[in-house]
Automatic annotation (TrEMBL):
It comes from Methanoculleus chikugoensis. Keywords: Membrane, Transmembrane, Transmembrane helix. This is DUF4845 domain-containing protein. The chain crosses the membrane at residues 12-29.
Length: 124
């Protein structure tokens, strides 16, 4: 009995190691798929067009009124953003300053829709 054939034990042990390795690989692949899906959902939820529309409205406001502004138009932009896009919007236009020989208004835009927060400081 001292000289038993133990080749079968090695086959079973190697099979167990391969099964455990496959389990860990499957777990890693499953996690990477979930992370990829979450990333894709984040990209789809980013309101790029809403922010572009807001910037266009603010820049039209600056072109027409400058820093003097019309409080009614500003309130309308804020109210329309809240009503149509469910987004809290605020913007401010400062008096003109000289930037590289051009007189531009510093504009601060804030956008928040509960998921995405966007802040921008731009000279226009």
């Amino acid at each position: 009995m001292a000289c038993m054939n133990e080749d079968g034990q090695w086959i079973v042990l190697m099979g167990l190691l391969v099964a455990v390795g496959l389990f860990f690989l499957a777990l890693i692949i499953n996690q990477s798929v979930l992370v990829g899906q979450t990333t894709a959902e984040g990209v789809l939820e980013f309101p790029k067009n809403d922010i572009r529309d807001l910037r266009e409205a603010v820049f039209d406001y600056v072109d027409k009124f400058g820093d003097a502004g019309d409080a009614g138009v500003k309130e309308d932009i804020v109210a329309i953003s809240l009503e149509r896009k469910n987004a809290v919007v605020d913007f401010s236009v400062e008096p003109q300053v000289e930037v590289s020989g051009h007189y531009l208004h510093p504009v601060t835009i804030h956008y928040y829709n509960g998921v995405t927060e966007y802040n921008e400081n731009v000279y226009y």
